[in-house]
Amino acid sequence: MNEFELIARLTRSLPTNESVVVGPGDDCAVIECGNVSRQLLFKTDAVVEGIHFNTDTPPEQIGHKALARCLSDIAAMAGTPTAALVTIALPKNFDSKVVERIYAGMNVLAQRHGVAIVGGETTTNPERLLISISLLGSVPRGKAVLRSGAKVGDVIFVTGELGGSLAGKHLDFEPRLAEAIWLAETFPVHAMMDVSDGLAGDLRHILNASGVGAELLKSAVPISRAAKVNAKRGDAAKPAFVAALTDGEDFELLFTVSSKDAVPLLDAWKKQFLNIKLSCIGRIVSGEGIRLRDQTGIRPLQAHGYVHFS
Amino acid sequence: MNEFELIARLTRSLPTNESVVVGPGDDCAVIECGNVSRQLLFKTDAVVEGIHFNTDTPPEQIGHKALARCLSDIAAMAGTPTAALVTIALPKNFDSKVVERIYAGMNVLAQRHGVAIVGGETTTNPERLLISISLLGSVPRGKAVLRSGAKVGDVIFVTGELGGSLAGKHLDFEPRLAEAIWLAETFPVHAMMDVSDGLAGDLRHILNASGVGAELLKSAVPISRAAKVNAKRGDAAKPAFVAALTDGEDFELLFTVSSKDAVPLLDAWKKQFLNIKLSCIGRIVSGEGIRLRDQTGIRPLQAHGYVHFS
Q: What is the ipTM score, two decimals?
């Protein structure tokens, strides 16, 4: 049983109540709180030493990344973050100065996005540092953008560039909060999520939740400079396009809109966000799974996102 | 720098915003959500293998304890829990059946208290299991019972019995949610918290937050059977009264009310909760710190809760 199968099994029988609007399976849970105009967003995310960062990662960047990942999930619902709780599990003989620097990195990011840090706790995890962030946000009533709203004929967009995030971006990316709110206020966005596990895997989450398929245009997928540089490192390196599909930790917005909105959206985006790329990478089709189109034709993308190109 | 000093230092400069009613330092944060009659409670808590449970602890009890600790913090504010997110960091080669049993333990408790489990995540923590729970709740507007409301002349109460929790209670205790709500609805409770670090240490949190001192009546402190059994194990064992003051993990309610409410409260409690002890253990006095009264007189309790009795 892999992680996704286990989660699917666990979430089948979870207790629920009347406050739950959206439960497990989207970027955030959506919860009623008795506010007539807004609903709550609720999200948790953890980073672990040796997996999401290393012993030599500057503590400020660890703090930044821990909070930014959660903020990116609020962005994925077109929400506004409100308040965070921070749990830090510290290894033995941990230097308190390092904890202060982790908080310094979080605080700067929190302040920039108007997020309060309202508490948390420290506990012990003898072998490695682990930080778990819990985040509350809100969204206009009924306006949370879910993964399940993609429709046949929609156009698929992605912000920024993909792949090679481990070269640095994964530690200092800026969550796309303002962009997501602008998008949802300006156009009817049908489905949205943030790209954290790689475009190929994450697009499948939208497709499965929406009961549709997708056709990606290979030449349209925006490949990061880091992915291209990595690809030139030798024969064993991942091709840049494969990196863009599978590297993960991009924390860009992946979303679909009606095809009639595609050109107006691109025009309006360029005026609004001069320095952030927006790419139309394909369209939603009937059926399931992802097909990839290039000069040579169309072929299905492998199930787990990895593609074997000659 | 110890844990409390570090937290004090970190929380001095945390970002805040207008939604924050109560920030770090109480059992839960209190947050505005635009509901005219209620406010949100927000709490996170983690349990770690080898610290809060062992490798041979039944997984159902691990799940129970992880959620129950958070629920106890909601109780400490006289709140109602709403929705939880569960982060499980799994060691290598972890059996998915164990994860299912952890969830089974959580689900039963969540269901009993009407709590929805709305998602979470699994991640990797190679050496040991760690579970972090994030919990949302709510409380009538302005009615969260804080640690800071104790007044000189108040009577101090504690539910249940204290000490020796590690003999078993820490794994299967029932959070005092119904009791706390009944208390706050029936009497003006001035200050409340749950006893998680031991009566001596936790009472000090109320005293410091309220700017007052306390006089405890030694003979009135309810000592658990487990603490008494432990004390008989030999000369090296902790005396039962010291265990009741310092063992921790009791998860009982510690609260103060006006002295005029003390007798009516005891009477009403006995009718409402037949099987749960309620003890009047002392009173709030001016000054600071805890003094202990027994047949021989009054003496100050040591700073960190541990008392050297002959």
A: 0.94
